[in-house]
Amino acid sequence: MKKRISILAIAILLALCAHDRRAAAQKAAGPESSALLISGDGFSFMVQEPPGWTGDTDRVRRYGVSVVFFPQLAASKAADVTIRVRVDEKTRENLAEDLTADLNGLRQQYPEIQSSELAVKHPAYATFPRLFYKPGSFFEYVAYLNPGPQYPFSVAVAMSKAKSAASPGELAAFESVLKSITVLSGAE
Question: What's the pTM value of the predicted model, to 2 decimals?
Answer without folding.
Answer: 0.80
